[in-house]
Amino acid sequence: MSEVTNTRHEHPGHRRWDPARLAARCAVALRTRWARRHGHAPPASDTGGARPPSAAAGDRVLWRMRTTVKDEPGSLAALCTALAERRVDILSLQAHPLGEDTVDEFLLRAPAGTDLTAAVSRAGGSDTWIERADAHDLVDAPTRVLGLAARTAQDTAELPLALRQLLGRCTIRSLPAAPAGGHGRAPAVPVEGTLENTVMRLRAPEGGVITVERPYLPFTPTEFARARALVDLDARLGPRIPHGRDVLTLPEGSDISVRRADTDDLRAARAMHDRCSERTLRMRYHGPVGDADRYLNHLLGPRFGRTLAAQTASGRIVGLGHLLWDGDETEVALIVEDAWQRRGVGGELLARLVAMAVEAGCATVYAVTQASNTGMVAAMRGLGLPLDYQIEEGTLVVTARLDAEPAAGRLLELRGRRTGTGRP
Length: 424
Hints:
Blueprint (H helix, E strand, L loop, with lengths): L3 E3 L15 H15 L23 E11 L4 H11 L3 E10 L2 E11 L4 H7 L3 E7 L8 H14 L3 H10 L3 E5 L18 E3 L2 E5 L5 E5 L7 H17 L7 E5 L5 E7 L4 H10 L2 H8 L10 H5 L4 E7 L5 E10 L2 E8 L8 H15 L4 E7 L3 H8 L5 E6 L2 E7 L6 H8 L9
């Protein structure tokens, strides 16, 4: 689940900062990334009442279902009667009034093989949408919203993830009000936000825009109000990240600490850049090394992901690791200053970033780098997870699959390597 994007116009890992050369220098990387993306519609097995391949005869399956009916007496009763005739249990129900119509949202437990779509259609339901549910959906809506609010209150970076869990399978993009490089400026959005069928736009607390899109299922006014309430909570609390750090002893005996970082660390991060060689900066940013500092404020902003800093006992930052929300995917990126390379710093940062991705429910994480960047490749291999490689004209995309069954033991170990949070 890589749910939030560090907008493609502003991402230093995928663009050249000289606008005249942008298309020529980034085409390969962009083609590779778009080739890896998938549609936002639910999988075929989640869009109807057909029996899933894994369901055995006699099993009962949890489903989430939405259907639209006329807002008139007896319409809900007809739906419930049709479901009861097929021995379907209604575990929860929410109604979303829409003028002349009402969208009814159900959590159901049905015998395997039940044709729910046909049953609902005959009872007057239309625009029916169904997907498989799990035990997490048994939590009632108020409890779930309160839990998401608590997560958002702890950490600025939680807002995009909380919105995703609140609204289901959707794509969330953040566009800053004043992006680095002067391109891709966020459009004007009213304070109260806008709702247009399958797209909602909310004004981000820092002045940008958060766009949420769910092409296969229109948002209801109730969902819009809940999302807006979460954004308002985030705005009232202001910037915040959990405090805490891990002290690590490297194989050579040196001690470093790993902690969460944000824009308060901008000066120290720039100082680290000054100590890095041109080759190190080029390996990380894929562009003119003189432009690297211009993007640090964006990368350190918790709205676009999470950043970890590796710090010496004297307080000097010697490495940064970024976990970047990218639509429905999640990117990891590392930079370690030259004097601290090949000493295990990058591997420690990467392991903790992946642990955060696991806790956030991401199915994969990927790194975009140059084929000659053996340090990044070694760090990805050191995760002990299944990896996929794509390479074209020197651009390498390495994807770690977090949902692979053989990786379960390794993921449990990674969960124990979170840094500076009570949550991921």
